């Protein structure tokens, strides 16, 4: 399989970080967690960035990072949930790799994220209905930009990675 970036996208809690870790091992590629990289570069949490500078500033940081990643060695890249909302980000991603959408039902997402405190978009709205509404707003965009879509509900990470590898190889 030709080594290109694999950009994992999807709603928070869809399994991007977990799948990225497993793919990295199976494909012997570097792993890049975009949110973690931004936290390290900025010296503050995602919550702090949102509070101090706003979402638009954070999205700009994502764009700059995607540009950098596109010019570095191929990697498995776990993207923040909103990274593909900007068309320029999608163009950079498609130029340097494949975009893999991981999906899950709102109830699954809720179960995966309900105990977390690092989801600024869900602060004060940690419930299935709010998650469903936000997912509905993003679903079309995710589907529009994805090269491959993989459902993660009720599946092992190994099974999900096997499907991703097979579909990328096609």
Would you spell out the secondary-structure blueprint of this structure?
Elements: E1 5-9, H1 16-27, E2 30-33, H2 34-42, H3 46-53, H4 55-70, E3 75-78, H5 87-96, E4 97-103, H6 106-113, H7 128-145, E5 148-151, H8 157-169
Parallel strand pairs: 1-3, 1-4, 2-3, 4-5
Helix pairs in contact: 1-8, 2-4, 3-4, 4-5, 6-7
Question: What features would you highlight for this structure?
Answer:
8 helices; 170 residues; globular; alpha/beta; five-stranded parallel beta sheet
Write a brief caption for the model.
With 170 residues, the protein is α/β, with parallel strands linked by helices. The chain has helices at 16-27, 34-42, 46-53, 55-70, 87-96, 106-113, 128-145, 157-169; strands at 5-9, 30-33, 75-78, 97-103, 148-151.
Describe this structure in words.
There is one protein chain. By secondary structure, this protein is α/β, with parallel strands linked by helices. Helix content is 55%, strand content 14%. The chain is built from eight helices and five strands; from the N terminus they run E-H-E-H-H-H-E-H-E-H-H-E-H. A five-stranded parallel β-sheet has the order 2-3-1-4-5, sandwiched between helices. Helix 1 (16-27) packs across helix 8 (157-169) and helix 2 crosses helix 4 (55-70). The N and C termini lie close together (9 Å).
């Amino acid at each position: 399989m030709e080594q290109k970036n694999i950009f994992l996208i999807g709603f928070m809690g869809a399994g991007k970080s977990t799948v990225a870790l497993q793919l990295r091992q199976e494909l012997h590629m570097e792993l890049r967690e975009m949110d973690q990289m931004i936290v390290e570069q900025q010296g503050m949490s995602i919550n702090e960035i949102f509070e101090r500078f706003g979402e638009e500033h954070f999205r700009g940081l994502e764009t700059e990072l995607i540009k950098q990643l596109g010019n570095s060695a191929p990697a498995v890249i776990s993207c923040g949930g909103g990274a593909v909302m900007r068309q320029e980000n999608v163009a950079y991603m498609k130029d340097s790799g494949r975009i893999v959408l991981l999906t899950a039902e709102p109830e699954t997402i809720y179960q995966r994220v309900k105990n977390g405190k690092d989801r600024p978009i869900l602060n004060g709205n940690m419930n299935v209905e709010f998650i469903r509404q936000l997912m509905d707003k993003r679903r079309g965009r995710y589907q529009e930009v994805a090269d491959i879509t993989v459902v993660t509900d009720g599946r092992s990470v190994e099974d999900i990675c096997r499907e991703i590898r097979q579909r990328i190889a096609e």
